Amino acid sequence: MIKGQDALSSSNSKLRDRLVDQLIGYEGLKLKPYYCPAGKLTIGAGRNLEDKGISEKEAIFLLENDIDECISDLEYLFKDKFDSFPEQVKSVLIDMRFNLGAAGFRSFKKMITALNESDFDKASEEMKDSKWYSQVGKRGKTLVEMMKSCL
């Protein structure tokens, strides 16, 4: 951590808050990548992705948010059933939902039906019988085996 960041976070949160407002005022706040006037791929409040990128801590923070979004979506899709699935099934579903996105995951209608019937063998067969399975290589094989192990 940069020494100045440490000092700001512990001794003067009001200054930090003012700087956030000030910098957003000048830079704007864009939630999708864009090119700044200097032609650099940028996001947020002027974060230069090309030169600075993101830190490992920031990447993990984003991933954890994405996982939470996947879980919320799966809880909605499967209603009360999701909480009753074995942990390995939940892991498979979260991984697939993350990889495929909401619409892509929902295209696995037969797998979803099988899961609603707690038929993990049928769900694993539906996973294998997809374009996704051939596209993701080892990931698909591993996830199918995880699903089958819950029989």
Helix content: 55-70%
What is the mean predicted local confidence, pLDDT?
93
Using the 3D structure, state the CATH architecture of the largest domain.
Orthogonal Bundle
Q: Identify low-pLDDT runs.
A: none
Shape: elongated
Strand content: 5-15%
Number of strands: 3
Arrangement of strands in the largest sheet: 1-2-3
In whole angstroms, how far apart are the ends? 48 Å
Q: Total number of helical segments?
A: 9
Query: What is the CATH class name of the largest domain?
Result: Mainly Alpha
Q: How many domain regions?
A: 2
Structural class based on helices, strands and sheet pairing: mainly alpha
Query: Rg, please?
Result: 21 Å
Order of helices and strands: HHEEEHHHHHHH
Sheet with most strands: 3 strands, antiparallel
CATH topology of the largest domain: Lysozyme
The oligomeric state of the chains shown is single chain
Quick synopsis:
With about 150 residues, this protein is mainly alpha-helical.
Description of the molecule:
This protein has 151 residues and is mainly α. It folds into 2 domains: 3-48, no CATH class; 56-148, Lysozyme, CATH 1.10.530.40. 70% of the residues lie in helices and 8% in strands. The chain contains 9 helices and 3 strands. Strands 1-2-3 form a 3-stranded antiparallel β-sheet, with no helix packed on it. Helix 6 (109-116) runs antiparallel to helix 7 (120-128) and helix 7 (120-128) packs antiparallel against helix 9. The longest helix has 23 residues, at 56-78.
